Amino acid sequence: MAAVIRMHPMLLQLTLTSFVFLSCLRNGNAGITSTFIRSEYPSVDIPLDNKVFAVPKGHNAPQQVHITQGDYDGKAVIISWVTPDEPGTSKVQYGTSENGYKFSAEGIVTNYTFYKYKSGYIHHCLVDGLEHDTKYYYKIGSGDSSREFWFTTPPKIDPNSRYTFGIIGDLGQTFNSLSTLEHYMQSKGQAVLFLGDLSYADRYQYNEVGLRWDTWGRFVEQSTAYQPWIWSAGNHEIEFMPYLGEVTPFKSYLQRYATPYLASKSSNPLWYAIRRASAHIIVLSSYSPFVKYTPQWRWLEEELKRVDREKTPWLIVLMHVPIYNSNDAHYMEGESMRVVFESWFVHYKVDIIFAGHVHAYERSYRISNIHYNITSGDQNPIPDKSAPVYITVGDGGNQEGLAGRFRDPQPDYSAFREAAYGHSTLEVINRTHALYHWNRNDDGKKIATDAFVLHNQYWGMNHRRRKLKKHYVRKSLEQIAIY
Ligand SMILES: *[C@@H]1O[C@H](CO)[C@@H](O)[C@H](O)[C@H]1NC(C)=O
Ligand SMILES: *[C@@H]1O[C@H](CO)[C@@H](O)[C@H](O)[C@H]1NC(C)=O
Ligand SMILES: *[C@@H]1O[C@H](CO)[C@@H](O)[C@H](O)[C@H]1NC(C)=O
Ligand SMILES: [Fe+2]
After folding, report:
1. What is the reported pTM?
2. Where is the signal peptide (predicted)?
3. What is the pLDDT of residue 448?
4. What is the pLDDT of residue 16?
5. Which H or E element spans position 230?
6. Residues paired with residue 302 on neighbouring β-strands, in sequence order
7. Axis-axis angle for helices 208-224, 175-185 (nearest 10)
8. What is the rounded CA–CA span in Å between residue 269 and residue 282?
9. Domains and CATH numbers, the chain
């Protein structure tokens, strides 16, 4: 029996209230724990014979096509795909008109084993020297089984470049995952910031681990072939499985999902940075060493110095494990990274930190806990205008289900929290303003549940914020109403 769900007037009230809270930056208000109870699809993976996993027609046809940014500034993409039967060609033909493939680039092919599973032939091809703000068509594979896709490059790096990011975490391959993906694809998102935990293939054993990476690649292709997904790694990518003889961490993930880490002088594909339109995006690895003097720590120290808010006003950090989380699930797991990096995040006035891992949604006020040290005793997070907003979007819909138990009472720093599946969008309008939405999957309809106007942490300071805010509160409320 299908449950009927509609936006309850009470919920609308909650949404508007939370919106106003953040807009006023009145930290320390009692936060909101949404009482919304969602009717759930069972959290089981979609069966292998479902059409979302269909293998494209034709001998050795390219499958699992995905693209990601290929350089520091958005004039390159890395195009990746798998051919199942033989290596075939790693060439990408591309151009700015349909069927007009004036250019070509040559990639590489690789393969790996996992237990007794043998992967297909995994191709990665860097296509660079592209123009900004341009639609490109591309073709991969050969003969009758070749396939064609397209993507649009971002506008040039400019403080006022407009751009919309989607934010998805912990996706998996259930019917809830499909709902999240479909809802995201109806948004105006132009690139996805992915928060780790891709396929959940590690929930399987033996050869099925590899097979479920393949099905996931085919499942997300409907989006990943057409717009870049900016990857970060989660615990489900580690796949440390000594009982299968598999002890190389991140093996499947690193073989399949390339990142442009060299362009940001990183020594490891698990942490890197890109600049896109008006945003500087830093990707961290929760599961690689990050304490003082480690390569990741040294890299981040240097990368933060390279951030130029005059060119890229929006400073966004992605990581898998949330630093501020008041859910019972993964409670305090982010504490070790908080101790190491939080003072930098405050010093550099990071705008937003997105994390996944917890299968629920939560947003914080601007708070910090950098005064605490082992002798001071000031252990409570306090309102801090220079601190980032922390947002957990680990609710993509994987087979582990929702994290439904929040700590009670809700801590002062927590502005809004709800255990439901969904995705977010961040619509950067110019150097001072961005619109943020969290959209709950509501069994068919796309519902904007938590929304606010974000003022840039660097440029926002120089403006008469209060006045602006009133105006935008009203305008955005209208937007929510018609969403
Ligand atoms: C990769 O493919 C080649 C050519 O088919 C094959 O000989 C080799 O065993 C494969 N390597 C792995 C690690 O599967
Ligand atoms: C620890 O906190 C106290 C009180 O805020 C401060 O005076 C002291 O400098 C801090 N020590 C360190 C090593 O940061
Ligand atoms: C940015 O956009 C907002 C909303 O449209 C506008 O009010 C503001 O003046 C713009 N800021 C700049 C610097 O153009
Ligand atoms: Fe996770």
Report:
1. 0.90
2. 1-30
3. 75
4. 35
5. strand 229-230
6. none
7. 20
8. 12
9. 14-47+157-482 (3.60.21.10), 59-152 (2.60.40.380)
pLDDT recorded at residue 39:
57
Rounded Cα gap, residues 404 and 108, in angstroms: 44
Give CA–CA dist 391/364, Å, rounded: 6
In contact, 311 and 158? CB cutoff 8 Å: yes
- Ligand nearest the Cα of residue 236 is 4
What would the 3-class secondary structure string for 197-209 be?
Answer: CCCCHHHCCCCHH
- Whether residue 433 has its Cβ less than 6 Å from ligand 3: yes
Between the CA of 119 and the centroid of ligand 1 the distance, in Å, is: 9
59 noted as active-site residue:
no
Separation between Cα atoms, residue 473 and residue 453, nearest integer Å: 7
Q: What is the pLDDT of residue 475?
A: 35
Q: Which of 83, 90, 118 to mutate to test the pocket of ligand 1 (most atoms within 8 A of CB)?
A: 118
How far apart (Å, rounded) are the C-alpha atoms in residues 146 and 284? 36
Contacts of 71 (CB under 8 A, 6+ apart): 128, 260, 263, 274
CB atoms within 10 A of CB 467: 9
Residue 348 neighbours by CB under 8 Å, 6+ apart:
304, 307, 315
From 121, 136, 159, select the one nearest 228 (Cα to Cα): 136
Q: Using a 6 Å cutoff on CB, does residue 476 contact ligand 3?
A: no
Question: Whole-angstrom Cα distance, residue 339 to residue 352?
Answer: 18
Which residues are in the CB-under-5-Å shell of ion ligand 4? 197, 234-235, 357
pLDDT at 273: 99
Reading phi first (left if > 0) and then psi (alpha if -120 to 50, else beta), residue 453 is in: beta
Give, in degrees to the nearest 5, the angle at Cα 192 between 186 and 193.
140
Q: What is the end-to-end Cα distance of the chain in Å, rounded?
A: 27
Cβ proximity of 325 and 334 under 8 Å:
yes
Provide block-wise average pLDDT over 10 residues at a time, the chain (483 residues): 35 36 42 75 89 98 98 98 98 95 98 98 98 98 97 98 98 96 96 98 97 98 98 98 98 98 98 98 98 98 98 98 97 98 98 98 97 90 96 95 93 95 97 96 74 94 42 33 20
The ligand that comes nearest to the alpha carbon of residue 84 is 1
- Residue 449 confidence (pLDDT): 86
What does the alpha-carbon distance between residue 111 and residue 121 come to, in Å, rounded to a whole number?
A: 5
Q: Are strands 279-283 and 272-276 parallel, antiparallel or unpaired?
A: antiparallel
Nearest CA to ligand 1 atom 6: 111
- 116 pocket-lining for ligand 1 (C-beta < 6 Å): no
Of the residues 66, 123, 124, 330, only one is catalytic, namely 330
pLDDT for the residue numbered 40: 59
